[in-house]
Recover the amino acids of this structure.
């Protein structure tokens, strides 16, 4: 009976950390890189902008030539060229001259400002202005955003839209990213059947873990294949063994069978090494982690809510780190609206609905109550040295949204 | 010149709201529903659990028979049957009898508790217990999570892992979800070229918007096709016209050309109706929205940072609502670490790095500075009636992570 000695949550995490695997990298097209993790430092090939750039449609001029112009005092210039977006001009501007210029086009030699088209009128090659501009006005200077050779992004960051823009501007069409982990999810339980409006309600239970845990794996940046097995020891053992060779990570749920203890845990213990089984936490106490063929196997509960909490506490962080993200939960402070008893020596993860100020925990939260996870948006964490929370106490909260694959 | 009269941000949003389109729905397999929006109310076909369920491996007994049992006082029972997961027993328990039972199996008639296997020993059909249990112990009562016929989820919610578990338990293998919007992104600009280590730095600029805005569209739950066009009026017009027929939404960036104003805005004005062009906000003033063939067209700036802010403020919310989510930004309060000047009559979206307490805005934030979006994780919003922020003032902040497609 492995469960008779519980491991502290802290020790369990330390043991798991010793077996943290990090994925290799692969080169992909930048346009496919959204929500992947960068596996190389990005040094810019270019200045950005690559030249002094007009940020308005208008006329490149010498700013000093415009001084004094107003609605009442107009000034005239000779237009000597035009520069469309994507073009450039070899001409140099001298006092009294102007060049028609488009947004995004390079400022011609001699000019130091752009006067917006709406403050001008043009007839033939004569420009009349009725406003003044200051030196540098409407110009984005060369290298204002990025300098050539500059380290613009360090590896191990999650690539969001803005990072993609920066990488593009640095000149990269392809980049190295960490490979996505391939995860095998093995849902065990002879009592489990597919969702249907007609289920044998004398003995069968709908298999919800195949949906929740598979989606949680996706929400951690990984790919997943799912299989459902009945509680047959050899079948379970063979599947775990094969999956540990074919996948980067194996996650199981359930696996209880009469007089045999937990078939999954026994199987992992036979074909590999069990790091721990049974952790001083609630919900989720029966969680285990083993190593089979150098692959980590998380053995989660069959109880849906326990399995979700175990996933959040162990598997999610492990998956993030496999992809090069050194992830830790963002703990925020909220005021507890209710009293919450707890037990010394055990870490509690209390399903809770939190707004920007308060946290009210869900009252009906047996480890099978999926509704409690839908009604909650956060966990209150009560650590092992704490006997409970009084109404009005400030508590540690982790918001579910903050543990998604987006930060 | 459309820009000469700016629309207030509030009026711009009101005008856009009049043209809010909501997608139709489609039936999909539950396992494909992660991060889709539910388009039907879910009423459960079943009780969940469907029967009084054992939550431990052990023995179903009459609790009262165990009273007084302890490590010193053992009690014996006759084992009359066994129930594996997925099975059931027709036998009824009477005083002094027990049935071996697996986690997930239905409690047999007559029993009202389960004693865990670890507090028992078995020899032949004789069970010896050395602990007592209370009525209901280790039993999850029928319908504890969900009652048959109960409305468990209302439509228009984003489907996350826990919702998938609840829908499965309610008996649904397939569900109605809102269709994903198909968006055409038209990036205009003759100066734009693909990312490369070798770019003609006299006149060409790397096209970063095709990456950032495309990824932002994906981050809003939609699918996107991208095309890059040069600043040719007829080409731009024809593509917008065709895209407005083939897609659910059209988004453009850039489109400046000498002496023609904005080719994109002019094109939208010719083939459709321009709702507004030019909004009293910074960055992002030149944003426009038009209707072409009953399809909304967002005309965003070519400047990368302006385009990102315009997307966040207009297109993101529009896309969320297209998919049935009545989305509004979650505004949190932070203390500004710096003074920020502003201008009456204009709403500012100041790129900022915020932690759980403070907000420090990014100082170099010209509308071309993509780095400023990478360094920031939030906007400080300064409304139009505010002349600026003093150091230490509490300010309104929207965290970028809170505007992703996750809740």
């Amino acid at each position: 009976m492995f469960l008779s000695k519980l491991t502290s949550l802290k020790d369990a995490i330390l043991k798991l950390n010793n077996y943290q695997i990090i994925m290799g990298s692969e080169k992909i097209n930048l346009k496919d890189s959204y929500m992947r993790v960068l596996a190389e430092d990005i040094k810019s090939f270019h200045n950005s902008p690559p030249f002094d750039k007009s940020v308005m449609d208008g006329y490149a001029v010498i700013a000093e030539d415009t001084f004094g112009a107003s609605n009442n005092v107009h000034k005239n210039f000779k237009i000597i060229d035009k520069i469309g977006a994507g073009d450039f001009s070899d001409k140099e501007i001298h006092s009294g001259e102007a060049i028609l210029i488009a947004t995004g086009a390079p400022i011609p030699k001699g000019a130091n400002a752009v006067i917006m088209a709406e403050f001008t009128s043009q007839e033939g090659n004569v420009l009349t202005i009725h406003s003044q501009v200051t030196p540098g006005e409407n110009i984005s200077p060369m290298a204002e955003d990025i300098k050539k050779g500059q380290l613009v992004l360090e590896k191990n960051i999650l690539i969001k839209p803005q990072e993609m823009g920066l990488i593009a501007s640095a000149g990269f069409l392809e980049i190295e990213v960490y490979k996505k982990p391939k995860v095998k999810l093995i849902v065990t339980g002879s009592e489990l059947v597919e969702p249907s409006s007609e289920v044998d309600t004398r003995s069968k239970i709908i298999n919800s873990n195949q949906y929740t845990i598979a989606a949680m794996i996706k929400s951690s940046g990984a790919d997943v294949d799912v299989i459902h097995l009945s509680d047959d020891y050899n079948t379970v053992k063979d599947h775990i063994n094969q999956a540990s060779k074919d996948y980067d990570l194996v996650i199981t749920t359930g696996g209880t069978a009469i007089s045999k203890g937990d078939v999954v845990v026994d199987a992992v213990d036979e074909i590999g090494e069990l790091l721990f089984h049974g952790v001083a936490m609630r919900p989720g106490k029966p969680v285990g982690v083993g190593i089979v063929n150098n692959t980590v196997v998380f053995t989660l509960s069959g109880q849906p809510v326990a399995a979700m909490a175990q996933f959040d506490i162990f598997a999610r962080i492990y998956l993030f780190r496999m992809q090069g993200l050194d992830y830790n939960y963002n703990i925020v402070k909220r005021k507890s609206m209710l009293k919450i008893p707890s037990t010394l020596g055990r870490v509690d993860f209390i399903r809770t609905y939190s707004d920007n100020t308060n946290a009210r925990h869900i009252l009906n939260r047996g480890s099978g109550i999926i509704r409690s996870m839908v009604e909650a948006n956060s966990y209150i964490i009560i650590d092992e040295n704490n006997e409970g929370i009084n109404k009005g106490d400030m508590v540690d909260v982790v918001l579910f949204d903050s543990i998604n694959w987006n930060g």
Residues 304-322 of chain A form the longest helix (19 residues).
